[in-house]
Amino acid sequence: MAVAIVVAAGRGTRLGHERPKALVPLAGRPLLAWSLEALLAVPDLRRVVVALPAGEALPADPARWGLAPRAFAPLPGTDEPRVVAVAGGRERSHSVRAALAATGDGPDDEPVVVQDGARPLTTPALVDACLAGVHAGADAAIAAAPVTDTVKQAHPDRPGAGLARVAATLDRSLLWAVQTPQAFRRDALRRALDQPDAVLAAATDDASLVEAAGGDVRLVPAPRSNLKVTVPEDLELATLLLARDDAPTVAG
C-alpha cells in the first residue's frame, strides 16, 4: 500500500483569481478535484492528505466537487477517512512536511506520492508508473517530460541590468522538465524534509531535496500535457485539453 499528499495551499497570485489556486473552477469543479480523482482511482493509495490554505476545508459531500459521493469514505476494513485535509505551510515543502505527518505511521519503504493540486491532467496510470519506480528500488521516481526547446543558460547578471546575456547553450537531450506526481520511499522523503525551514523554502520540488541528500532519483516519462496551472493561459489550455475524447472523465 501507499499514501499520497496533495499540495494545494498556494494562493496563486499569478493566476489572478480571488480564490486560492487549487480551488479555482475548471470545467465545472475545482482544479484540486481533478488531481484527487486521479489519485482516488489508484487502489494502492490507502490515504490521501490534502494541504489546504488556512481557513479552507474539504466539502462534507464530495459530490459538490464532482467526485463520487463516497470518495472520501474509509476503505473497506478501515475506520479512518481515505481523504483528509491539513493546513498548509508558508512554503511548498512546509506543506509537504505537515501532510506527511498527517498520513500516520508507515514502514520506511512505504511509497509516498506527492501531487500538485493544480495539475488537472494527471492520470492514474502515471501515478502507478511512479509507484512502480519506488517499488523497483529507487528512493524517488518522478514524472518528467523531455525538453524539446533549445535552452540557453544566462549569465547571473544583476536584475535590471538590461537584457540577459547568454552564457551557454545546454544539451537538451539531457534535460527534463519535472512535473508531479513524484513518488518517494517514506524514509527518504522524511529525511529530506527534516531540515531547517530556510532550506525547505529554497527547494523548488521535493525530489531536489532527496537528490541533494544523495538519494537515487529516477525519471518517469510523462506527457507535456500534464501541465501545472500557474497563469491564466494555463487554465485556458487545460480547459481545451480536458475537452478531448481521451481526457480524464468526471466521476458520476
UniProtKB/TrEMBL annotation:
The record marks R14, K21 as: Transition state stabilizer. The record marks R172, K228 as: Positions MEP for the nucleophilic attack. InterPro entries: IspD, IspD/TarI, IspD/TarI_cytidylyltransf_bact, Nucleotide-diphossugar_trans. It catalyses: 2-C-methyl-D-erythritol 4-phosphate + CTP + H(+) = 4-CDP-2-C-methyl-D-erythritol + diphosphate. GO terms for molecular function: 2-C-methyl-D-erythritol 4-phosphate cytidylyltransferase activity. The keyword Oxidoreductase does not apply. Keywords: Isoprene biosynthesis, Nucleotidyltransferase, Transferase. Pfam families: IspD (PF01128). Pathway: Isoprenoid biosynthesis; isopentenyl diphosphate biosynthesis via DXP pathway; isopentenyl diphosphate from 1-deoxy-D-xylulose 5-phosphate: step 2/6. Its EC number is 2.7.7.60. The keyword Nucleotidyltransferase applies. It is an enzyme of class 2 (transferase). Belongs to the IspD/TarI cytidylyltransferase family. IspD subfamily. This is 2-C-methyl-D-erythritol 4-phosphate cytidylyltransferase. It comes from Patulibacter brassicae.
